[in-house]
Specification:
alpha/beta, 11 helices, 37% helix, binds N-carbamoyl-L-aspartate
């Protein structure tokens, strides 16, 4: 068991600065992917508290816990089906659920919600998305997928496209990419949805362009995101803006033949189904990797905690 880095709550990608820890987690994920899992977490319980919709994140966390032999307390619609509808505070809910579960996976529309929860929780909180803040476990599975396809990130050019302002997956991923010297990050977005500068601290090589064709080297990876309509309203639904982010032939010709196309999903038109047949499209595998990476994270978090 690797215990060099102590992480009590998983709130932000910036907690994963130790590349040794990342390698350890990804090695565990490889093992779970190829060899399955023993009932390492039998007797442990994970609660999922989701105040926002989810398909992949909640279900892959739940599948991960079940594959490790643990139990799951699932609440997929906290807003209407929990005491939140009676006005209960997040803090009170978390205090109580922590007395039933060994770990809490929380998704909430407010930036900083996971941090607030962690301040009152005796059990680890895992941030499964806090509004337009962060989504650290998505970044872990994104990084795992990139590394397994590209071998290394050093010297690679990774483009992040779409709603970089509100997209929490990008906010977390950029902080992990920054750990790899020599990685070039290309940010593709229009001015109103640019990546907030605070996520770029510590990132050495980055470029910002409005369109993919404005960058004059071939890409090793293209990470596409959805326009987060729910976070910035009507403007994002305008046809003209959406059209600009639809990955077409021109985009695909900017990606090396050995490159990869990722997307955290769900997609909302920016990747048409025809792209699925492109051998560089790995987004469904990426979603499946979420299962193995979350197994690795739960295993590491719960067992290293029990041993300490
Ligand atoms: C993302 C999210 O919820 O932030 N989805 C996910 O967890 N895979 C991306 C999105 O909703 O656009």
């Amino acid at each position: 068991m690797r215990r060099a880095t102590k992480i009590q709550h998983v709130l932000s990608a910036r907690q994963f600065k130790d590349r040794g820890l990342l390698a350890h987690l990804f090695g565990l994920a490889d093992d779970f992917k190829t060899q399955g899992a023993a009932a390492a977490l039998s007797g442990k319980t994970m609660a999922t508290l989701f105040y926002e919709p989810s398909t992949r994140t909640r279900l892959s966390f739940e599948a991960a816990m079940q594959r490790l032999g643990g139990h799951v307390l699932s609440s997929e619609n906290m807003v209407s089906s929990s005491s939140a509808s009676k006005g209960e505070s997040l803090e009170d809910t978390v205090r109580v659920v922590g007395s039933y579960a060994d770990v809490i996976v929380l998704r909430h529309p407010a930036v900083g919600a996971a941090e607030r929860a962690s301040a009152v929780s005796s059990m680890p909180i895992i941030n499964a998305g806090d509004g337009s803040g962060e989504h650290p476990t998505q970044a872990l599975l994104d990084l795992y997928t990139l590394l397994r396809h590209l071998g290394t990130l050093e010297g690679k050019t990774i483009a992040l496209a779409g709603d970089l302002r509100h997209g929490r997956t990008v906010h977390s991923l950029v902080q992990l990419l920054a750990l790899y010297p020599g990685v070039q990050i290309v940010l593709i977005s229009t001015d109103d949805i640019k990546l907030p500068r605070r996520y770029l601290s510590g990132v050495s090589g980055w470029h910002e362009v409005r369109r993919v064709k404005d960058f004059d080297h071939l890409l090793d990876a293209l990470y596409v995101t959805r326009l987060q309509a729910e976070r910035w309203g009507k403007a994002s639904r305008s046809g003209r803006l959406r059209e600009q982010y639809v990955v077409n032939e021109q985009w695909l010709s900017c990606l090396k033949q050995t490159g990869v196309i990722l997307h955290p999903l769900p997609r909302a038109g920016e990747l048409v189904p025809a792209v699925d047949a492109d051998p560089r499209a790995v987004y469904f595998e990426q979603a499946q990797n979420g299962l193995y990476v979350r197994m690795a994270l739960l295993y590491w978090l719960l067992l290293s905690r029990a041993e300490s």
